[in-house]
Structures are given as C-alpha cells and as structure tokens.
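Convert to structure. Protein one:
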Amino acid sequence: MIDKKELVSRIREDIKTEEMAVVLYTKHLKGTLGVSGLDKATKDRMVFLLDKLTEESRQHELHMRELLEKILNSDRDVY
C-alpha cells in the first residue's frame, strides 16, 4: 500500500522522466544515424520508428497526467 502523497510524488517523477528521457534518446539516436553508414531506407525506417516511439511516449505522459489528476481530486488516501 502507498499513501496519496507518496503516489503523487512518484507519478510526478515518472512524468518528468518520461518528458526528458525519450526526447534525449531519440535526439541522440537520430544524430547517430547520420554517421552510421546505414542505407537510406534503413535510416528512414529507424527515424519513423523513433518518431512513433516519441508520439507513444507523449500519449503515455498524457495518461499519466490524467491519472495524477484523478488521484489529486480523490478523497482516497491509500492505494
């Protein structure tokens, strides 16, 4: 079990991590692709997949924010 204060704190930290990590990783990987020696089709596919990962991460962040709002608006204190 976890109390509301601790749960809110953990979710906020998870949101911050999600915001920073995926953007940082995808930026780095896209930069690395330029010097990778891979053919254009492979690079294009990888960029497509990295963009998809970024979008899915944003969706996950939105879900986490919705969850956080529900918890903050709840009278419940133990989860």
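Protein two, convert as well:
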Amino acid sequence: MAEGQKNSILPLLILFVGGVAVGANWPKIRKRIKPLLDSLGTKTAEVSNSVSKFIAEQKENFEDRMVASKMAKKAKPVKKAVKTK
C-alpha cells in the first residue's frame, strides 16, 4: 500500500474505532449527559424565542416605515391660499 493511502485510511480507522467505543458505552454516556442535554434544550428554546421575537419586531418596524412612505407619496400637497388685497 502506498504512503498516501495509509495516511487517508488512518483517520477513518480512528473514527470507526471511536464510534464503536461510543456505541458500546452509549447507555452509560446517555445517563451522564442527559442533564446537560436537557439544559441545552431549554437554553436553545429560549434563544430561538428571543431571535424570533427580534425578527418579528424588525419586520413590523420595516412594514410600518413602508406604509408611512407609501402614504407620504400618495398624499396630495396642500395648496397655499393666495392672499388677495
């Protein structure tokens, strides 16, 4: 086997062995990381809600500016009264 082929197989072999090790110990690993995953899920939901709220507010502000701009364009200029003497 050429040297280049050995170098490309080594990372795959390491990943495979790591996957087997995790798979074999998954029930133990899951028990230990469950509290972490639960808290991450809560934080992720909070961040997602905050981002959604921010985007909705920005969209509303943009739409308000668009309506105001359209209304300003449609508004007819008021003719000034001509003073007569």
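Residues 3 and 9 are 10 Å apart (CA to CA). Helices lie at 3-24, 26-74.
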